[in-house]
Amino acid sequence: MSNEGFAARLHALRTGAGLSQEDLAQASGLSVRALSDLERGRSRGPQRRTVQALATALGLDEGAAAELEHAAGLGRTRPRTRSGAGSATRPEPRPVPHHSLELPRDLGDFTARGVALDRLRALAGRLDPARPPVAVISGQPGLGKTAFAVHAAHALAPLFPHGQYAIDLRGMDPRPTPPRDALARLLRALGIADSATPTTTEDRSGLLRSLLRDRRILLLLDNAADEDQVRPLLPGHSPSLTLVTSRNTLAGLEAVHRPELTLLRREEAVELLTRVIGPERVQREGQAARDLADLCGHLPLAVRIAAQRLAARPGEHLGKLVTQLAEDTTRLDALRAGSLQVRAAFALSYRQLSPPARTVFRRASLAAAPDFSPQSAALLAGLPLCQAAACAQDLTDAGLLQPHPTADRYRFHDLLRLFAAERLAEEDEPAHTAAARNRADLWTLHRATAAAQLFDTAPHPDTSPTPDPDPSTAPADHEQARVWLEAEKAQWLAALGRAQARGLHRQVIDTAEAMHWFSDRTPHWEAWAQVFQWAVDSARALGGKRDEAVHLNYLAWAYNMCLHDHTAALTTAQAALAAARECGDRLQAGWALGYAAGALHRLGRTGESIARLREAADHLGGQSDPESRLAELTVLNTLGQHLRQTGRAEEALAIHRRSEALCQAGVAGKPRELIGLYLAVTRQHIGNDLAALHRWDEAEQPLSYALTHFQASQMPAWSEPARLDLGIVLRHLTRHHDARVALTAAHDALVRLNNPRASEAADQLHQLDRTSSGSPVGHEKFPTDQ
Q1: Which among 387, 130, 368, 120 is positioned nearest to 258, based on CA atoms?
Q2: Whole-structure pTM over 0.90, yes or no?
Q3: What are the beta bridge partners of residue 403?
Q4: pLDDT of residue 168
Q5: Long-range contacts of 291-295 (CB under 8 A, 24+ apart)
């Protein structure tokens, strides 16, 4: 019988829904070729599962789906007995018999994972029997791997008319299911009697491949332990799809697809909560629902447990559970609903680890930063670096650590960090934990001090650099040192604070002193105020007035440049001046006068600031040592800046020309690289003086010089304000394209650096948009050491 009735109806339904053949094929899991044959009446009546898949993809209601099934049934051939010389036609395949490996129950409130499911649906729609696809679903505990695989299997079931089979391989048990036993269960479910089942694993695997050769089945291998357990269970040549779930990555499994399951987005976590407890409760406490999702770390298992707990207590407010989860020490206790426990899920994976990997897992919870390096893990665990790195890889494969996408670093999920800290408190002696932390702290401080000293372009001749604790891995240049100091910022900051608390005052002072030159390159770090406050406290504990004056000056700089707290900067600079005078250090007294002047200027007390700067310049100019020359250069540059900003640009230009001459003459005993930096700062000021005088053509060259020098030195905190200054000049020169490029780049960088001049850059872009050519906007200059 022809199937023109079904073909016409299918075509009408598809076109009426506005779908192409490719769209419907993708949604239903059929191939485009098969769908085309159905619409042209070339195929016999499709089987019920195929019709169900098409009806679902077309969004048909029950009545329309029944009509489509009826049309398909008219085209199906009926089995006939032999009659005379004629032979019977091929009967319709019999329904799949009931078996013991049916799919587990799907979750009616399953949420999200649409992208991953679409990828599996596309995979099922283009099956190649010569290469039956295998999809491995792995990831950290609690990610919902099994729930997703079961949901996907139910969604794809209509595409596999010969059955769906699921088997739990018990990969987290002390003794996972051997492949031989798993094969016996699969063969039994496929209709092979126990008496006909081969003895060896190899023969059972071969029989399974033979049985599946012409069967379109979906096979779910849940909770796999390793690759060796899975390989014998995979089809060879078959129009089938295999889904494998595992807490391990099964990285050695060849030619497999890996649908990625990530943490839920916040809105997806709230949606799951809503589906479990109902929209009314979530709407009443919307913020609490969002907070709950965040405290669960967007981990599906944790969100589900919280939701199940609330569902069992319909009168309980979401805010109450939020309060309970907010306490780190009891959060894992609260994430429990009956037999569902986040802690238990984590413990299953933890028990599978080797003893060294367990140690790395526990001790890594001591790391101060959200992420940590293998070196930090090695120091905390007391293991050689190569062994700790291997353990970190094992923890990643087990889903207990998350690797950084580009750097050799790792991080915990928030709940796993809490679990690791619990295991640390339970399994490690407090003395061992303290020793591990102290060992890591001292190593980290020595590395941080040595790395920061690389930025000191004018080391004092009477001091020797701090040796790195591991020269074989030590940063070799500025760039490597910068990368390490930035990546390990939280670690060395925490180590410095603990060293101060433990009374290691000399170490604190030495590290803070080394950080001084590096801090000039990162003035957007608010943490510098804490660093230099610790150093001040240590200097006072040791009774060293000179060290106290030095670090009070650094602290005044941090208040001015990092925290923009100019009242605190003034108070601190005055304290530095008193300490310097008490110990007779004229250099530190000059710096203190300069830092006080910078604070006064920012407080609007410009007349006082100029007077203080003139006093500092006179004070420093009367001394002959190289350090005083450098301080004098800084003071003169700042004095000129303040004069310019009070409308005295001619005086400012004269002051800055004097600074330029000092730089060009050089400073005895100081490297050319350092003096070149001072010259670049001076020429930035000269460019701005000329701009204030509306000498735009002359202003471009010194500003370009400063920008080029700062860029070559990889100093964005200095180069981007200079880029802004240059962009302002270019705008006034009506070079609109060049000005837009410079101002846009400067604005974006200044925002990243948290520099207050970002708003000025935005204003300049706005003026450029209006093609305004008004007077230059007055602004505070940067960089300066004041």
Answers
A1: 120
A2: no
A3: 410
A4: 98
A5: 291/322, 292/318, 292/321, 292/322, 292/325, 293/264, 293/266, 293/269, 294/266, 295/322, 295/325, 295/326, 295/331
